[in-house]
Amino acid sequence: MASNLPPSQRVVVTGLGAIASIGHDVDTFWSNLLAGKSGIDRVTQFDPTNFTCQIGAEVRDWNIENHWDPKEARRNDRYTHFGMAAAKQAFKDAGLDMAGEDADRVGVVIGSGIGGMSTYETQLKRLIEGGPRKVSPFTIPSLIGNMCSGLFAIEIGARGPNFGLVSACATATHCIGESMHMIRRGDADIMIAGGAEASITPFGYASFCSMKAMSTRNDAPQQASRPFDKGRDGFIMGEGAGILVLESLAHAQARGARIYCELAGYAASCDAHHITMPDPEGKGLAAAMTRAIASAGIATTDIDYINAHGTSTPYNDKFETLAIKKVFGDHARKLAVSSTKSMTGHLLGAAGGIEAVISVKTIQTGKLAPTINLTDPDPECDLDYVPNVAREATVKTVLSNNLGFGGQNAAAVFRAV
């Protein structure tokens, strides 16, 4: 059990980085989240007029050249821009200096559910309109989903474990959890982990709209993402990145690092049911939550708050609620649960990263971010979803859930040290 592990195998969070529609740094992001501010509006990156969903949670007033070398930035996709900027934030927040570290024991695992969607569209158009010679030589490095990990390692000189995981909307939580395991195994002392996504593109929207997965509440963008509400009609796509710096407790203490909390548990599971619809009995997610809690060495009654996947889709919210009841029994009624996607939109592969940042900040501040737009609760979604207004609470342990297409589930447990 994690609580009995030696300091060399306990994993703590020492740095945070966030880029989202409601803030380009952790402090701004957190302040706007607690204020119930929505980052959703009409899409500006392309003309959405002919799309059934015309709204999204875009990162606006953004210039990657304020965060990264302009030449390098031009060679890479927008998803990598977000990941690099958030990783730089987290690394700085952790107070790390590679000059004092063994580079072979510093790793990076930053994933993306979709990767360089914009690059793919742009370069395919060049091929069709101008022939093969018009395609950029940087196309493949720009669009593949592991590139953010590789580029950030190059940036800081980290030679430890390095790759990118892909599990749709569970990607970032899997990256964070597997990084925890690498530290516990002794493969690294420090891991920079999370997810980045930038799929607000014509092809991205056309694909999800064709599935009828996105909200069509185009006349009221900031009210469109409404998890657990009876009137929900689909998710709203967001973009950005969420990154954590993880270290062994022994390493963090030896260098005198500020410790936010412990990443105490993690688990992954599969529904083995359907490629897009969650298991209607919530069995897969329930298994992930149960195993994550067990791996943390705690009881279900020790969980104070759940940051839900809460996508604002008819199936997800109902089945996630069912899974929570299945795992927690009577304690489910005492839990605070909220879906911050009501404000950030759904960051797909980056969702678990930004929601891990939220989980850590919840423990640090004792404040619960709300589920906004919850005005007419679905009778089948009958838990305490912290409706509409943030709340102060004593929070020592947080569970964060994420589900992905393919039936892939991930759950992480964060605990006060």
Descriptive notes:
- Pathway: Lipid metabolism; fatty acid biosynthesis.
- Residues 8-416 form the Ketosynthase family 3 (KS3) domain.
- It catalyses: a fatty acyl-[ACP] + malonyl-[ACP] + H(+) = a 3-oxoacyl-[ACP] + holo-[ACP] + CO2; (9Z)-hexadecenoyl-[ACP] + malonyl-[ACP] + H(+) = 3-oxo-(11Z)-octadecenoyl-[ACP] + holo-[ACP] + CO2.
- One of its GO terms (molecular function) is 3-oxoacyl-[acyl-carrier-protein] synthase activity.
- This protein has 417 residues and is of the alpha/beta class.
- The protein folds into two domains: 2-254, 3-Layer(aba) Sandwich (Peroxisomal Thiolase, Chain A, domain 1); 266-415, 3-Layer(aba) Sandwich (Peroxisomal Thiolase, Chain A, domain 1), CATH 3.40.47.10.
- Helices cover 33% and strands 18% of the residues.
- It has helices at residues 26-34, 70-74, 78-93, 117-130, 139-143, 147-156, 171-185, 202-210, 249-254, 283-295, 314-328, 341-344, 351-365; strands at 11-19, 41-42, 55-56, 106-111, 162-163, 190-197, 240-248, 261-270, 305-307, 336-338, 367-368, 391-392, 397-404, 408-415.
- The chain has a ten-stranded mixed beta sheet with strand order 5-4-6-7-1-8-14-13-9-10, sandwiched between helices.
- Helix 3 crosses helix 6, helix 7 packs across helix 13 and helix 10 (283-295) packs across helix 11.
- It is globular and about 60 Å long.
